[in-house]
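Dear all,

This email documents one entry for the complex benchmark we are building for the journal club exercise. For each entry we list the sequence lines for every component of the assembly. Then comes the predicted three-dimensional structure of the complex as a token string, followed by one or two observations. Please use this as the template for your own entries, and keep the labels exactly as they appear.
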Amino acid sequence: MAYATNKIRTFIIDNFLFGDDTRLQETTSFLEEGIIDSTGVLELVNFLEEEFGLIITDEELIPENLDSIERVEAFLERKRHHADLENEGPAVLRIGA
Amino acid sequence: MSFTREVLQLDPARETARICGRIRELLAGPLRRRGLVIGLSGGIDSSVTAALAARAVGPARVLALEMPERHSAAETLALSTLVANRFGLPRLQEEITQPLEAIGFYQRYSEAVRLVFPDYGPGWSSKLVTESVLARTGFSRFSLVARRPDGTLERRRLPLKPYLEIVAATNFKQRIRKMLEYYHADRLNFAVAGTPNRLEFDQGFFVKLGDGAADLKPIAHLYKSQVYQLADYLGVPGEVIQRPPTTDTYSLPQGQDEFYFSLPLAQMDLCLYGKNHGIAPERVAAVIGLTSEQIERVYRDIEGKRVATRYLHLSPLLVTEIPEISGPLQSSMPVSALHQ
């Protein structure tokens, strides 16, 4: 998932922090650090859906899935695993596409 | 300190006198204007502001502006007219449908909605909604509710682009209204009075350079239930007092508490007061009839909205402070100094 992690990290740093990565660790809470708000969440969701070709449901819009790089990465992994199981074949997520 | 539903009780006569005195001070002092322009919406806040203005400077020095458009509720104009007449205010109607059309509002709005409802067009109506903090389990989600010409309703979640486009287009309404308020204020040498109550002011429920713009905001310190107390005292018509708070912004009727606030406004008031005064959630919960956990969520939501809407309150930010301008206002400066 290193590719996905880098993509997510670059997006957060470019889009929300204007290049300043000094306060962003893998586990940094986007909400607690004031990095994203409700519109920022929409931007993150839009990025994830477009970049990784997935659909995020209402129920998945929770901090447990989206509130740090680590959590987003784990969420993507779960989505990919779920897609693998459903398709009994290669992941439909276009990670790295 | 004790916490009951009565904490928001005020002495309406005393508060009215205090606000009216302050309005006169601000007009004669820092603002140097001769009266007040107020956009009347037929709602409780603008009605109370207008009544206070009439008391403060006399009705002849107040201009009540009515600015309906195509999507305004049918009763809006009748109610604002009732208020202007009750307080003897000169009244002017500026219909804003045409300016909105000229600037492309209706087209831009419909195009944004069609990103979510591709068939949206004549005969449809819509509104933006969000879930109460008490109902949702995660982040805020904005949805669009659309009514088809056959009357059926459907709700769909809004992705980023249509959400931003819909909000941006809709903000034209508040900004065009404010532009007209300032036009009339300039030609009369009046100031513009904004009409937010404390909930709206604190939680950023306004459009920057739209309804958020004003020279003074006479009731921004009053909780909503205190605005109702003043309305009773000042003699605001009962029809206005009984009208459920509405944004009167979308083509489908939209209550303020389904779009922005977590709870009905009377409960929101008590939560905001409780949070502002450090009242423990369990004590607020006992008075309102909710759980401590729910009050904690409302407290967090209040703080979250404060952070998210902070920029709405900010004046343009400077790289370097300019002390001659941004320092304390020299209100005692003689008028002659202005001509040097």
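Observations: Chain A touches chain B at residues 34, 37-39, 41-43, 45-46, 49, 58-63, 66 (CB under 8 Å). Chain A is about 55% helix and 0% strand.
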